[in-house]
Design goal:
By secondary structure, the chain is α/β, with parallel strands linked by helices. It has helices at residues 2-7, 26-36, 52-64, 79-82, 88-94, 105-112, 126-129, 132-138, 174-177, 191-208; strands spanning 41-46, 70-72, 84-86, 101-103, 115-119, 140-143, 148-151, 157-163, 180-184. The strands form three sheets. A five-stranded parallel β-sheet has the order 2-5-8-1-9. Strands 3-4 form a two-stranded antiparallel ribbon. Strands 6-7 form a two-stranded antiparallel sheet. The chain is elongated, with a radius of gyration of 20 Å. The two termini are 35 Å apart.
């Protein structure tokens, strides 16, 4: 069902035609879904433009029913933003408690058993990236201040994206790379396919913004 949701269907299902959300090699989508069904995280790699973020978003929506659990990787991303931080007002008044924990999207994904997206993971500094190693291998986060460990609920996994041409790329450690299954998304080389993608996206935006002007194919 996730594959149909992403790639669409030529014939209606239950009276509804499923529009494709991603245009590309079906086998790549199948490998991505199979990876997320295993204990390995998924890393979508490619040049700018092959819809890494779009595929990541729709994989999460298709499998977990939501794509809202997302961390945007930057050079300023900290380990606290990846795992958890504290509400310092509560921490000072009541001491360490579950109530004082500020849960990151990764933490919430582990609690609820949902997919978490990490955009541009190679923009994150290497020492912060490596905070993911224990999360991906043990599926757990230690919270020493509370004397307990958060263990991920069934269904939790991570989808990360990486841009191969980004000037801010930080090399991933070999230990972290081993926790991911890499799927390389190629840039569209076929003009007709690219035209079809742009035309479909224009129609979506026209509907979203209630624009009724017809856009000629040549444009």
């Amino acid at each position: 069902r996730g594959e149909t949701f992403i790639l669409g269907s030529e014939s209606p299902i239950g009276g509804v035609r499923i529009e494709p959300k991603y245009v590309g090699d079906r086998s790549l989508v199948q490998v991505a879904i199979a990876t997320l069904a295993s204990d390995r995280a998924l890393l979508l790699v490619g040049e700018p433009g092959p819809a890494k973020s779009r595929l990541s978003e729709h994989l999460a929506a298709a499998i977990s029913g939501s794509s809202e659990l997302m961390i945007q990787g930057t050079a300023g991303t900290t380990e606290d933003q990846l795992k958890y931080s504290w509400n310092y007002a509560l921490l000072l008044s009541k001491g360490p408690s579950d109530e004082a924990v500020v849960r990151s999207p990764l933490y919430r994904g582990m609690e609820s058993g949902r997919l978490v997206r990490i955009e541009e993971v190679t923009r994150v500094l290497p020492e912060v990236q490596d905070a993911l190693i224990s999360v991906l291998s043990e599926k757990s986060i230690a919270i020493p201040e509370l004397g307990r460990t958060l263990h991920a609920a069934r269904g939790f996994n991570v989808i990360a994206t990486a841009n191969t041409r980004d000037r801010g790329v930080n090399e991933m450690s070999s230990a972290l790379r081993r926790r991911f299954n890499f799927v390389v998304l190629p840039v569209l080389r076929d003009l007709e396919t690219e035209i079809a993608v742009v035309t479909r996206r224009v129609r979506e935006l026209q509907t979203e913004y209630d624009v009724r002007t017809e856009v000629p194919r040549d444009i």
